[in-house]
Amino acid sequence: MEDKKGKRFNTGKPMHSLITPFFEKQVAKVLTNGWGKYDDPDGNIKLTDNRPLSNWRNGMSWMTVIDSLKRHLNAIQSPEDYDEESNLLHASHLATNALILLEYYHIYPEGDDRPRNPIHNKRIALDIDGVLADFSNYFTKYCLKKGLYVSEEESYIHLHWNFPYKWSEAWKEIKQDRDFWLNMPVIEQNKNLNFEPLCYVTAREVDTEITMEWLEKNKFPCSPVFTTNAKSKVKTLKEQKVDIFIDDSYDNFNELTNHNIFTYLMSQPYNTKYKVGHRRINSITDLFNFNMKNYEV
Are residues 261 and 212 in the same domain? Predict the structure, then answer.
């Protein structure tokens, strides 16, 4: 007779057996210590009584928990093992604070008072070509494909914005080509904006409607588009009360900076030779994830 056994279908479910008794006990010790310190300092509440929620479960500032967590972490790094007040391991306090913070995601989200990156509140405007659209690479490949006065050996447009002399005729033809503008690829690292730009300000020689169609086609936020020339960018950006502008042209960068418009220079092969310090970024997400390595050229 076949020996039948019970079944459990636990694949993909949390494995509580991975939590060790020692770990649980250390956290319980810290919580018990906290109960005596905050909830029952006089020792009048009996275990059989209807006990109130633990102090931490009433909710508190997330930063208060984080501060406590960091103090215990710093003590461990000092190095110091035991908390003088509770005589429990700093590591136990560290783990408990981390678990309280984790629980707050579930029971006390309104206590989240972590400082937000103030740049999220800024009025940010963007250039198009060289910031969102991969103009220089695409222009070179487009010229090669069309056989417009260019060879592989001459495709050094990536080094600067000043086109080779013989490309002037090609440019006259291409800038009237609607397909050229609408099929221009996106710069991959800037594909997914993590904010809503105030507006786009571009000096590209094409109707604004085509730029808007390209933005919508590539799923960029449908913010207002201003088509101007390089010199008029200053006027437009000031009228829109822009706090931060991002451009790939070093000439524009200088012009805007000289008119007190804070500008970041988007790194491109044709502008890496210029030293602009912390005002250089390699991707738009650098604005929200500050890392000094992003500014090294």
Answer: yes
Domain assignment present for 48: no
Q: Kindly report the CATH number assigned to the domain that includes residue 273.
A: 3.40.50.1000
- Cβ(108)–Cβ(59) below 8 Å: yes
Q: Does an H or E element contain 263, and which?
A: strand 263-266
Residues 237, 125 share a domain: yes
Residue 83 lies in a domain: yes
227-273, pLDDT tens digit by residue? 998 678 999 999 999 999 999 999 999 999 999 999 999 999 889 88
pLDDT beyond 80 at 180: yes
Q: Which domain holds residue 60?
A: 19-42+55-111
- Whether 161 is covered by a domain: the verdict is no
Q: Do 102 and 125 belong to one domain? A: no
Residue 109 has, within 13 A of its CA and on its CB side, a CA count of 2
Scan for tokens 């408990």, then name that residue.
96
Helix (H, G, I), strand (E, B) or coil at 137: helix
- Does residue 50 belong to any structural domain of this protein? no
From residue 44, alpha-carbon distances to 40, 214, 284 in Å are: 7, 71, 58
Residue reference for tokens 């963007």: 126
Q: Which amino acid is at 82?
A: Y
Q: How far apart are CA 108 and CA 65, in angstroms?
A: 12
Token digits for 12? 């993909």
Three-class SS of residue 50?
coil
Helix (H) or strand (E) holding 247: strand 244-247
How many Cα neighbours within 13 Å face the side chain of 117? Answer: 11
Alpha carbon distance 132, 202 (integer Å) = 11
Q: Which of 209, 213, 204 is nearest to 182 (CA)?
A: 213
Q: Same domain for 254 and 126? A: yes
DSSP assignment string, 187-218: PGGGSS-SS--SEEEE--SS-HHHHHHHHHHT
The whole-angstrom distance between residue 155's C-alpha and the CA centroid of its chain comes to 34
